Amino acid sequence: MLFEGSPAAVPSVLELVLVIVTLGLALLWLIPKARSTHYRITTRRVVVEEGLANKRLEQVDLFRVVDFVVDLPLGQRLLGTGNLLLECQDRTTKELRIDRIRTDVRALYEAVRQAAETERSRRGVRTLDSM
Description:
The protein is 32% helix and 31% strand.
């Protein structure tokens, strides 16, 4: 297991200001919104489960991930959150966003990148870049 959790309820300064201005009432919307998404990243796959009443489960095997983007907006960096975008060679999932996670996103990126390389090697998969 490389990471398991939900997005941060208050991921950036903008949401923090909203919580302060509304005297905490914004949390009644922000917390259920954050808890309706659950991320699980293992050394073999990424699973995203979304929804409160209606659930949607999306999974991408790591050997299909071809590129990684770490997104650290200023407002999120101030509160210790960030985003990870995975570009995949999958028929149904071309991009998989792991948003507003409260962890060291750079370290997670390195761990996921290494796990993807290991999984490609284990399966004997090679990727070709075309221009």
